[in-house]
Amino acid sequence: MPLFFNKWQRHIHEFYRTLGVSLGISLFMVISCLGCQSEPVPARKPNIIDANIAESTRTEWRLLWSDEFNSSTRTVIDPQKWRYDVGGHGWGNQQLEFNTDRDVNALQSGDGYLELIARKERFQGNEYTSARINTKALFDVQYGRVEARIQLPKGRGVWPAFWMLGSNFPNAVWPTCGEIDIMEYRGQRLRESTGAIHGPGYSGGESIGGLHQSSSDLSEAFHLYSVEWSAREIKWYVDDSLFLSIDPSMIPKSAEWPFDQPFFLILNVAIGGHYVGSPDESTIFPQTMLVDYVRVYQAASLSENPQ
Fold first, then answer.
1. Residues spanned by CATH 2.60.120.200 within the chain?
2. Identified catalytic residue from 115, 147, 179, 233
3. Among 10, 41, 147, 271, which residue has the least CB neighbours within 10 Å?
4. In terms of DSSP bridges, do strands 97-99 and 192-198 run parallel, antiparallel, or are they unpaired?
């Protein structure tokens, strides 16, 4: 059975379950027919056009890069798209996990998802293991739309994130390289996710960002987390709902704006640290972040990418 069918059947099942409608046999037959033809992923048309270029004629985005995690078997991440960050030194935040390159912490599920799995286990002197993967030296982007469809883990001390660092890192140290947090989530705050930027003079606890408040527990379903990034500003969305916009006028006077260069992508599940605190007896392990896809777009016409 084509994997295209498996994945979209699950998506449609989620939708109908939410509405309280069961899937009938006739609907199954229709979906089966649709699943017989596997097609490339089309360039997505966001519901909200970047306000910076709203006066232009741009109406769609061009798909530049993606990972759909469509391996037909349980297997490791694609080494042509991702690399592992391995270590357990706290990552500058007093995180408690050791990030490994083992398939018990990161793998493609075999039915269309990436699994990043945090476990409570003693490993290399740390009490927890997890995974952190990135696209450094494999793919980077300057301006466009960056998005991922994710179902988040939860629990006190669980800290999943989807973010970017300037491609000049580590030659340019953090925060000089710049950091764009597309999505961060504190597992004890079930209805809140955040977005932020870090740069020289506005990093760590002094970063510039904002909060998305959901009407439901964000860990209970998949949600689309994205930024639309231009030379003029960066905008953050959850499920295409705008909740934050930052431009160079909002950073400290005389501070640098490092968001005018290529950045690479990062996905990880941290355990503990300054931002989220430590797990306690209420935190259940393992915890898994499921990623349906990661996609990067640029304007369909290169002339419409603002410089």
1. 42-304
2. 179
3. 41
4. unpaired
